[in-house]
Amino acid sequence: MSNIIKGSYPVNTQKVVEIGKHFLEDSAPVLSMESITKLEEETRLTLENATAQADQMISEAKLEVEKMYELADKQIEEEKKEFEKQLNYKKDESDKEYANIINQANQSAQKIHEQALFEKNQTLQNIESEVVDLVIALVGSIVSNEVSNSNKWIPYIVSKLLFGEDIAPDIEIGLSESVYDSLTKEELSDLSNVRKNAKVDVNDRLSGHTIEISTDRGQIIYDPFKSLREVTKDLKLLSEVEDGFAQ
Asked: Cα(21)–Cα(24) distance, rounded to whole angstroms?
């Protein structure tokens, strides 16, 4: 290598240039007008195809994006409907629960009202029964006391027994010996004046406070204590009947 570098060779630059020029001119392709037109056409078609493919890709991409948006909107709408459905379901459940609570409260109030009414009626019935018993006891005590300790009731009872009766004026009032003996002159006079020409006498068949009134149509017999027992019985029966209707 060192020997070559050190050697000396003459170089003709003119010839090198000329050879290069001729070489380029001889090797350059000869293009006709037809070839250039064909090349331009191919280039144009290639560009058009590329443009068409690009447009198609863009259109497809747009369609894909639109589908994605549609699917997203559809999913959002479905989720919204599901949310509203759940919300309405919960609202319906809440309304049903509220209605159930109100219904239970009304039923409970109705039961309480019925129970209170039942207890009220029971209390009233017990009170009425007690009142009836008390009235009977008081009436019995008053009547017994009046009959046993006074004779004022005799003219009154006789007048009531004869009231409205179409009988002859001549009547006979019979009393037991004990009652007759207890009459004062004034009481005997009052009893005789109940009816004109009325006769008051002892009747040996009578006992206690029983009274017998003899008329032209028959006898009227009255026992105040027997009547009191019948009144007591009627009052109790009436009270029981009223209790039955109240129930």
From this structure: 5
What tokens appear for 222 in the block? 């009255």
Q: List pLDDT tens digits, range 88-147.
A: 777 777 778 878 888 887 888 888 878 878 877 777 666 666 766 766 676 667 677 777
Same domain, 164 and 226: yes
Same domain, 111 and 161: no
Domain range spanning residue 161? 150-246
pLDDT (tens digit per residue) in 196-224: 878 999 999 998 889 999 988 888 898 88
Phi and psi of 115, rounded to 5°? -65, -45
DSSP strands (E only) in 139-226: 172-175, 199-202, 211-215, 218-222
Domain CATH number, residue 210: 3.30.2320
Q: Considering its fold, how many domains does the chain have in total?
A: 2
Query: Of how many residues is the chain composed?
Result: 247
